[in-house]
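Table S2 (continued). Query chain:
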Amino acid sequence: MRHRMNPIAVAAALALSGAAAAGDDVATVPAVDLQRYAGTWHEQARLPNRFQEQCRSDVTATYAVQADGTVEVRNQCRDADGGVVTAVGLAVVDDPAQPGLLRVTFLPAGLRWLPFGHAQYRIVALDPDYRWSIVGGEDRRYLWLLTRSPQIDASERQALIGRAQALGYDTTRLIASPPR
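Corresponding output:
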């Protein structure tokens, strides 16, 4: 198994950071326990985006709360050749009154001080038992449907899609994220 740093993680952060359209953002959840949110989430579906074009299966996001309150973000997937693509970033809750709104960057650690390359990670829906999460970027151009389980049944998938649609996301363009 080979591990490669995602060559376009910086482009992802830049693309997301420039995506905001004033007044069109979906609200974030009012409460998030980051310790409960930590761990591995499996992508069930996403809206198309440039920075995940190489991802074909086994798409995961693993979050680890650090001692200083920041969150390490480790995104992984398998590409068409079966290789593992990894991007490691850092997320921060800037405003404790908005715990569902995090600022994330995939810039190398030495460049994270730069005023660009940061994006919003918006938890817009969250299961009370932390079994599923719907995450979006600014202005509904980005969407990820995440679950704790690698596989879910068709009715669970449709329920997540319905929730995302009710939040105003264009679910007709969703890409399913099959496990390997």
